[in-house]
Amino acid sequence: AAPAPTGGGARVSGNSAEPESTATERKVIKEGALSLLVKKTEEAAEKVKSIAGELGGFVDDANIHETSDLSKAGTVTIRVPSDKFDEALKRLKGLAVKVEREEINATDVTEEFVDLEAHLKSLRAEEEQYLKIMNKASEVEDVLNVAERLSDVRSRIERLEGRIKYLSRQVDMSSIIVYLTEEADVTVLGITWRPLFTVKQAFRGMLEGLAGFVDSVVGFVFFLPVLVLWLAAAVAVLWVAWKAF
Prior knowledge:
- The protein is α+β, with helices and mostly antiparallel strands and 245 residues long.
- It has helices spanning 41-54, 85-93, 110-136, 140-172, 195-244, and strands at 10-13, 16-19, 28-38, 58-66, 72-81, 98-108, 173-182, 186-188, 191-193.
- It has a five-stranded mixed β-sheet with strand order 4-5-7-3-6.
């Protein structure tokens, strides 16, 4: 017996045959997340942005900050055309000293698309019917009733169109979140040594000490007039007491 066709036509099951639905282009939302250990966070972030632009995408969000150990870390979220998703991941991983984590998620929203478009088609047909009724209505009450229903239908149409556009954007432009962390400066015999971190920490300590010293000097200068008044008052009291005796 010949095998059942895999494309259009009829799908045979037992002795009965049921029509197969028309093939629909799959709608898939691709999302990725990479945790990369890099030499310099800021330089890597700029390269991530460049990769997005070169592949026809854009930067959705970027944030670079200093961590508690005075190194830099950051997050860059980019969007690239879905057909460039794999290439983008490959190029992004090429920026890393080490890829610490990679996550890829693909969500098939084809069924939701089909449902939304079918519902939208139904609502547009309903809108058409109300428009015909509106054109024939002569009574003010009838016109108002139809206008109210028409407004409700159009509101639902707009919501559906908005949802379809949103999903279309998600399908067309894949999202990739890139987490960036700076590599330790030196590793010797399994011990992480960060001379740059030590220098930064010492410099920060020096600045904090200098700031404390300046604060003390300023405080003393502003307190000096009060101290002079206290001394003058004490001398006056002693002088009066000496005169009295």
